[in-house]
Amino acid sequence: MNPELDLVVERVIRAPRAVVWSAWTEPSRFARWWVPAPTVCRVDRLEVRPGGGLVTRMSDDGATFVPHLDASFVVAEELERIVFTNTIDSSWHPTNPTPIAMTAEVTFADHPDGTAYRIVVRHGDPASRKLHEEIGFADGWGSVTAQLAEVAESEVAR
């Protein structure tokens, strides 16, 4: 982790790693937490494997969906780690995404209370990191991580 280039979200999710992993890898579960509520997510592609696509749309009214993310997975180690980037789209074309080009590494580890969940979002330069922080990285990624925890923890509570 490079504090001049990277931003981090960490949280203990009170659910086993397999449950958190499935919330990340199953489209119907993923759609429930990927964008901050009340915005709604639609998953067009979720292929959690190296070279697989991650394509989502979002809607504020639940009827009209607009592009949200078109990215590629770089690493997928079952129950351990996922890495994706928006600098390569789901058809493997280089992109120049706005407002931020980034690579995100998500790790899942056992914790006495469930799963130690960590996201490191890497940027190409300090200005991009600063911009991402200023436009609400902590609120956005923090709120969707809380939503992920709600999805996973509610499945354990059943």
UniProtKB/TrEMBL annotation:
Pfam families, per database record: AHSA1
UniProt xrefs under Gene3D superfamilies: 3.30.530.20
SUPFAM superfamilies according to UniProt: Bet v1-like
Start and end residues of each Activator of Hsp90 ATPase homologue 1/2-like C-terminal domain: 14-152
Family according to the record: Belongs to the AHA1 family.
Name of the protein in question: Uncharacterized protein YndB with AHSA1/START domain
Record organism: Kribbella italica
